[in-house]
Amino acid sequence: MQKQLIEEADYYSTGYSYALSLISGKYKPAILYCLMEYEPVRFNEMQRYLKKIADKTLSQNLKELEADDLIVRTVYPQIPPKVEYSLTERGHSLVKVLDKLCDWGNENRR
Questions:
Q1: Rounded to an integer, what is the distance from CA 84 to the centroid of its chain?
Q2: For an engineered disulfide with 39, which of 1, 19, 43, 86 has Cβ 3.0 to 4.6 Å away?
Q3: Is 5 within the bounds of a domain?
Q4: Total domain count, the chain
Q5: Domain CATH number, residue 74
Q6: Consecutive 10-residue runs of the chain (110 residues): their mean pLDDT?
Q7: pTM of the model
């Protein structure tokens, strides 16, 4: 296989760029990790897990992850309303990648 010249390359057309665009940011990886470990998770549980995240920030990140089909929001018709978040099949496919990141972090923690 011949190596592509950097002059001809387009980072934004790579799979790496696409994957990072879905999980980039301060909280998205943490949200996905939380769901990977504890799903299903309610909004308040997630907020307590992430400690200092604002309601608006958590809500926006959850909406983006849902729009990207990585998580699903399940609303239960009861009073008071109950909402839970869990990984979609597509979200579960990221678990291998997140596990590897976790392994690397554990092996290289100082």
A1: 15
A2: 86
A3: no
A4: 1
A5: 1.10.10.10
A6: 79 89 92 94 95 94 97 94 95 90 91
A7: 0.86
